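tool=predict chain=A
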Amino acid sequence: MGDDQGRAERARIAELADQWRKISGRLPFLVVEHTDRGDIVLREQFADGEPVATLHGRWAPEIARYLDRLQKDAGVALAELLWVIGGHGDGRDIRRAALNLLRAMGLEQRKARHRPR
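tool=predict ok
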C-alpha cells in the first residue's frame, strides 16, 4: 500500500471515528427517524431535534437498533478503538482500546481498583 493511500485511509478512519464519537456522546438522547428513502436520521432529543448523523444502506436499521441498546461508555470506547486503529496509536494502544471496549460492553471484567487501607 502506498504511503499516500495509507495516509488517506487513516484520515478517513479518523473522520469516521470522530463522527462515531459524536453519535455515541449523545447516547441515550438520540431520536431515530426513518425517512421515505430508507435512510435513518439520528436527531438530538433536545436542541430542537438537530440532526447528528444519517445512516445509509442495508445495515442502517441494524446500526439504529445497536445504538438504541448501546451504552454511552461503550460507544465512546468504540470510537477510541477506531481512532487508534486508524494510525493514531501503536499495537499496545490498539490492544488497550480493544480491552476498554470489551469492558464497557460487559464482556471483560473491569480492572480491580486497589484502595489503600
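Strands lie at 30-34, 40-44, 51-55. Residues 3-24 form the longest helix (22 residues).
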